[in-house]
Amino acid sequence: MISPSANQDRYPYQNQPTWSKSEKAIARTAFDAALGRELHEVIQEAKRMANQIRQSSDLWDLEHCLTQHRKGIDRKYDYRYSQLTDVLGRLLYENRLSEEDLRGLREDKMESIRSFAKFLKESAA
């Protein structure tokens, strides 16, 4: 017999959504595509900067720029399921994802994603 507390321990974050296998696949595909696009932008910027290196300070400027991008990307792209609706909401707000990229997610998740994107938009205004 399973005690009620054993079931509660199974999902320690009861307010967090559960993700079906198909939703996990959709989210992972969208997440990876957004990350890939952002990394491509960083690579292009790094190439432009590298082509303009004329002195040692230019090299350190490139290193600083890359470090800042890495830190920002590391903070933004958090694939823990407990954070994923906020991450996807931020990517939607930044136009790194479209709602079409997230087609197939349940409506409760889409509402949460849209809500966070709207919050960020209103906060920026």
Spatial extent as radius of gyration: 19 Å
Q: Give a quick account of the main beta sheet: strands, pairing sense, barrel closure.
A: none
Distance between termini? 54 Å
| DSSP helix fraction | 55-70%
Q: Regions with pLDDT < 50 over 5+ consecutive residues?
A: 3-10
The percent range for strand residues is under 5%
Mean pLDDT, all residues? 91
Q: Any idea how many domains?
A: 2
Structural class: mainly alpha
H/I helix tally: 5
Notes on the protein architecture:
With 125 residues, the protein is an all-alpha fold. It has 2 domains: 31-77; 79-125, no CATH class. It contains 5 helices and no strands. It has helices spanning 4-10, 21-51, 56-76, 84-93, 107-124. α4 (84-93) packs across α5. 14% of the residues are buried.
Quick structural gist:
The protein has 125 residues and is mostly helical. The protein contains 5 helices and no strands.
Q: How would the blueprint of this fold be written?
A:
Elements: H1 4-10, H2 21-51, H3 56-76, H4 84-93, H5 107-124
Helix pairs in contact: 2-3, 4-5
Structure keywords:
2 domains, 5 helices, 0% strand, elongated
